[in-house]
Amino acid sequence: MIDLRQFHGGVHVAGHKELSSEVAITPAPIPPRLILPLLQHIGEPSEPIVTVGEKVLKGQFVAHCRAQDCSLLMSAPVHASTSGTVIAIESRSVPHPSGLTATCIVIETDGQDQWIERSPMLDYAEKQPTEVRAHIARAGIVGLGGAGFPAHMKLRSQGIDTLIINGAECEPYITCDDRLMREYPQDIIAGAQILMHILGGAQRCIIAVEDNKPEAYQALLAATQAHIEIVQVPTLYPTGGERQLIKILTNKEISKNNLPASIGIIVHNIETSRAIYRAVTHGQPLLSRVLTVTGQGVKNPKNLEVLLGTPIHDLLEYCGVKPTTERLIMGGAMMGFTLPNDDMPVIKTTNCLIAASAEECVFPTEAMPCIRCGACAEVCPVNLLPQQLYWYTVAKDFDKAQDYNLFDCIDCGCCAYVCPSHIPLVSYYRYAKAEIRAHGKEQQKAELARKRHEFRSFRLERDKAERALRHQQRKGEHKESIIKAVMAQAKEKIMEQNK
Ligand code: SF4
Ligand code: SF4
Predict the structure, then answer these.
(1) What pLDDT, on the 0 to 100 scale, is given for residue 444?
(2) Considering the chain, what is the average pLDDT of its residues?
(3) 487: buried, middle or exposed (CB in 10 Å: 19+, 13-18, 0-12)?
(4) If you take atom 5 of ligand 1, which residue's CA is the nearest one?
(5) Which ligand does the CA of 389 lie closest to?
């Protein structure tokens, strides 16, 4: 029995989950084209290993990590989600808050859905954890809760005693994890067992489910195995945040700049656990994911198993978009971001698409001055002082904002949600973080240029000194040979005189 604790702050938000929570997961149709970005995760992009015109099979590598052994790199390979022909490798719009484009492999699908030969690892329990981890790395699995952290990198951590599987789907509108827990509890449990094998010393696994998902809780309870506890946690946003969930379940807090592994814990999402099960037991790389298409702008909200690379407009068409749609959001209503258009693909981190009507959109046009009420600080789950961060960000005093732990902010939006002045606080923090990172990159570039210049000057000086030394040596050798010649001549002369 776990003694549940509470993290600081948090808010009760309108869930809007009823739009899709009773709709079972169904597969989305194979689209005519797939757009596969080389970077769908945190870390280094992968590199294409196919060429335009090449035929590919479902599950075939189309882009690989820079090193042969993916398991050593913060990167993840990309596979063809179905069979077809590569028709382009080019820059395309991708779903990212930056709005930037990225290199993508475009595949014209053939409708055959023809698999490459699969290589499951059915005897994983007899294999070394490093081998199973490498298998997961080759399957291209990343954190499917939205963060996209390569799963194999988390599994490199040593000294882990607790594995947490995060089923606290606290963001409004999203229901895909709820449906996965209800419909595939055995797969999730089997994935957790594989994870425990890899982690070796992990004695304990907790699967956390919010108490507003009783069916999911019951389904997992019925499927669970030894050493795996199913725990209901209170429904409060952002319970699904990694640090908040750890606090609730273990009462432990992670010090600044550290990861959960530093206190012997790692957290994986529900769908990541299922993806690991499918990779190990069925030899199936990460080719699809379950996501929720919802919002009042959609005629038929759904939970769909979607091939990675499926264009978003194809999905919206499939679910029926109403002309009243005002905004398209990727992710949840609290932490998601607005997409500029629907001409971009579903990627590994796409857990939800919200076609929002005008009533569902919060327009940031009526912000009023801060009245220093302190409501934002009361709800901040990280115990920050959001109003101070706001003041320093507005004043562009980014050093001070960092002193007030700007980078600990998890962009959860609780502060903006309760702000009576309707100040879009998170937008200010995101702006400040982007500015600081850009400035940091500039500084890194300048530092690199300075080091290069210093090295070049050093090399020129060293070459000059070596040349001077060689010249001196040659001069010395020349002098020596003259002396030797003169001595020889003198010797010859003396010998002639003595004849
Ligand atoms: S909640 Fe809004 S008005 Fe109140 S202190 Fe925070 S930023 Fe200011
Ligand atoms: S967005 Fe940042 S500052 Fe605001 S409540 Fe969340 S963690 Fe705190």
Answers:
(1) 73
(2) 92
(3) exposed
(4) 372
(5) 2
- Determine the Cα–Cα distance for residues 495 and 193; give it in Å rounded to an integer: 99
Which residue's CA lies nearest to atom 3 of ligand 1? 370
Query: Per-residue pLDDT tens for 454-464?
Result: 777 778 888 88
Q: 3-class secondary structure for 77-89?
A: CEECCCCEEEEEE
> From the CB of residue 297, how many other CB atoms can be counted at a distance below 10 Å?
24
**Can you tell me the distance from the alpha carbon of 476 to that of 370, in angstroms, rounded to the nearest whole number?**
82
User: Cα–Cα distances in Å, from 14 out to 47, 215, 365?
Assistant: 42, 20, 22
| Ligand 2 neighbourhood includes 406 CB (under 6 angstroms) | no
How far is ligand 1, taken at its centre, from the CA of residue 236, in Å?
21
Report how far residue 143's alpha carbon sits from residue 269's, in angstroms, rounded to the nearest whole number.
7
**Chain centre to alpha carbon of residue 351:** 13
- pLDDT of 107 over the 90 cut: yes
Percentage of the chain lying above the pLDDT 90 cut:
73
Distance CA(494)–CA(498), nearest Å, equals 6
| Per-residue confidence (pLDDT) for residue 362, from 0 to 100 | 65
Atom of ligand 1 nearest to the CA of 386: 6
Closest protein CA for atom 8 of ligand 1 = 370
Q: What is the pLDDT of residue 365?
A: 60
| Cβ of 410 less than 6 Å from ligand 2 | yes
Closest ligand to C-alpha of residue 419 is 1
Rounded to the nearest angstrom, the distance between the alpha carbon of 405 and the centre of ligand 1 is: 18
Which pLDDT band holds residue 443 (cuts at 50, 70, 90)? Answer: confident
Q: Give the mean pLDDT of 292-320.
A: 96
Q: Each residue of 340-376: b (16+ CB within 10 Å) or e?
A: eebebbbbbbbbbbbbbbeebbeeeeeeeebeeeebb
Of the candidates 332, 164, 329, 303, the residue with the CA atom closest to the CA atom of residue 237 = 332
Q: Work out the widest C-alpha separation in the chain, in whole angstroms.
A: 125
Residue ranges matching CATH 3.40.50.11540 in the chain: 17-29+118-326
Say yes or no: CB of residue 335 within 6 Å of ligand 2: no
Classify domain 17-29+118-326 at the CATH topology level. Answer: Rossmann fold (3.40.50)
Ligand 1 atom nearest to CA at 377:
6
Judge if pTM exceeds 0.90: no
Return the minimum-mean-pLDDT range out of 109-123, 147-161, 308-322, 367-381.
147-161
pLDDT in tens, 390-400: 999 999 999 99
Q: Are 221 and 253 in contact (CB under 8 A)?
A: no
Whole-number pLDDT of residue 69? 75
Distance 378 CA to ligand 2 centre (A): 10
- Dihedral of CA atoms 226, 227, 228, 229 in degrees, nearest 10, equals 110
The residue whose CA has the least distance to atom 1 of ligand 1 is: 419
